[in-house]
Amino acid sequence: AAMPGLLLGDEAPDFEADTTQGRIRFHDFLGDSWGILFSHPRDFTPVCTTELGRAAKLAPEFSKRNVKMIALSIDSVPDHLAWSKVQGKGRCQGSSKGKVHREESTGLEPQQQGSWTTICPAPDLVSPHPQVFVFGPDKKLKLSILYPATTGRNFDEILRVVDSLQLTAYKKVATPVDWKPGDSVMVVPTLPDEEAKKLFPKGVFTKDLPSGKKYLRYTPQP
């Protein structure tokens, strides 16, 4: 299982790792920022190369949202540096090296082994599949997505999700299906009508339903 034992709302492991930007401790790296950790099966894979290039291109957008990006791969820091040159702009940071066969006594190099796993200072974050982890300034996991290696990640969707996470973290709203920044949002069900009217001076609008229930309450994005 990916990220075993770590659920939404759990605190991120405060691991230490060597990166292309030097040695870091994860909580210090995040500071008071949001953070996105992208895991990659390994460097120099074609799908992940396109992803890293896209992440670099969108770095200003993530920066505007106070989001730091870091990429976790099983290869060495020199490999990460070489890979970043291939994909153009190495804005993402690669984590520590470490490929170790389950039967270490064989003495074979990792490339020669038919089966290997990964070892790094953050074992809970290691996965053979591409993943996206979003952490808040409180160092807690806000979102995780697991992808197959053959399907590239949609960075427009990741930006949209970050916008939703940040909006709903600070306002008593939720974002409906297919929401985009600027669209109306939903008032959370736990907020009484009178309080909602005070919090959302632009107005609260209820959608009529066949059941007659009035629980779908919308307001312009605050």
Automatic annotation (TrEMBL):
The keyword Oxidoreductase applies. The active site is at C48 (cysteine sulfenic acid (-soh) intermediate). InterPro entries: AhpC/TSA, Peroxiredoxin_AhpC-typ, Peroxiredoxin_C, PRX_1cys, Thioredoxin-like_sf, Thioredoxin_domain. It catalyses: a 1-acyl-sn-glycero-3-phosphocholine + an acyl-CoA = a 1,2-diacyl-sn-glycero-3-phosphocholine + CoA; a hydroperoxide + 2 glutathione = an alcohol + glutathione disulfide + H2O; 1-hexadecanoyl-sn-glycero-3-phosphocholine + hexadecanoyl-CoA = 1,2-dihexadecanoyl-sn-glycero-3-phosphocholine + CoA; a 1,2-diacyl-sn-glycero-3-phosphocholine + H2O = a 1-acyl-sn-glycero-3-phosphocholine + a fatty acid + H(+). Keywords: Antioxidant, Oxidoreductase, Peroxidase, Redox-active center. Residues 88-114 are annotated as: Disordered. PROSITE patterns: THIOREDOXIN_2. Its EC number is 1.11.1.27, 2.3.1.23, 3.1.1.4. GO terms for cellular component: cytosol; mitochondrion. The keyword Oxidoreductase applies. GO terms for biological process: cell redox homeostasis. Residues 6-167 form the Thioredoxin domain. GO terms for molecular function: 1-acylglycerophosphocholine O-acyltransferase activity; peroxiredoxin activity; phospholipase A2 activity. Belongs to the peroxiredoxin family. Prx6 subfamily. This is Peroxiredoxin-6. It comes from Crotophaga sulcirostris.
